[in-house]
Structure formats: C-alpha cells, structure tokens
Amino acid sequence: MRTFDLSPIYRSTVGFDQFADLFNRALTNEVPANGYPPFNIEKTSADTYRITVAAAGFAREDLGIELRQNLLLVKAKKPPANEDQQYLHRGIANRAFEKKFQLADYVVVTGASYENGMLNIDLAREIPEALKPRTIEIASNGPAGNGKSPGIGAKEKVAISS
Predict the structure, then answer these.
(1) In whole angstroms, what separates CA 92 from the centre of its chain?
(2) How far is residue 44's CA from residue 125's CA, in Å, rounded to a whole number?
(3) What is the DSSP annotation of the chain?
(4) What is the pLDDT of residues 44-70, one digit of tens each?
(5) pLDDT digits over 106-136, tens only?
(6) To bridge 140 with a disulfide, which of 33, 83, 114, 154 should be the other Cys (CB 3.0-4.6 Å)?
(7) pTM of the full structure
(8) Biggest alpha carbon distance in the chain?
C-alpha cells in the first residue's frame, strides 16, 4: 500500500486546506466504500449536475436530504418491518442508508425529485459575480483621436483576463 506525504502541499499553499484534506481522506479511505444504495453522478451541462440514488422501496417521507457547508448528506430511514411476514428468500436490501457527497465550492442544490424509486438531486455551480472575469477601465490623458498614444486621463477599455 502506498502512502503519500501531503505536508509539502500544506507548506506551500494558502487556502487549499479543504482540497488537501479531501485528497487525504480519499487516499486513507476514511469514508467506507459502501455500494448501497447504487447511485449515478451525471454532468447534465457545463455547470449543472445530477445525482441519482436508487431508493426503491422507500416512500418520499422516508428520505431526507441535508446540506452542511460543502457536504451533501442523503439519508433514508425504513420503518420497522412487519414481524408477521415470513420470507423464504430476502434479496431486496431494504435497509436504512446514509450517503455523503463532497461538493466543490459554489455548487448548490437547485432541486430534488423522487419518482419510480429514483431520488434525483439537481446541482449547479454558481460562481459569484465578484469572482467572474470582468473588464477593467484604464484611464489616460490627452485629446482623443489625435494619432498619438493616449496619455493618462483618457478613458480606454482594456480587457484583463486571468
């Protein structure tokens, strides 16, 4: 088994602690790799996603979705089973579950629906206006249109991209 030393990441970066912690958790398998219930993560467009959880056998009231900072928690509680039922074979896993999904910054839940035993959770990346690229106006002097390069004071739009 390989181990990775992430201390160089911590020493040379600022503000990436969450990413390094997420990477470290993924490598150490802190979260058990439970395959129940099965789920899909789908990219529906450039900035939208859908998580589909197979929750057959659960009523809408048995399911819960909770968002804590960047952690999406999907839970299901099953009411107590009828003690009078006698099974010859029980192959349907009808048990409670809790699934955790780590969301990136600025990813928000836009809606959820439950149909035909499938729980759909729609997500979108919404970057705040303050973080989007913008055009900065540079001021320059001098008369406009005289063939000379504009000096300080004249207004000229220049696109600055990152």
Answers:
(1) 30
(2) 12
(3) ------HHHHHH-SS-HHHHHHHHHHHHT-S-----S-EEEEE-SSSEEEEEEE-TT--GGGEEEEEETTEEEEEE-PPPPPTT---S---S----EEEEEEPPTTEEEEEEEEETTEEEEEEEE---GGGS--EEEEE--S-TTSSSPP-TTSEEEEE---
(4) 999 999 999 999 889 999 999 999 988
(5) 899 999 999 999 999 999 999 888 888 888 8
(6) 154
(7) 0.64
(8) 95
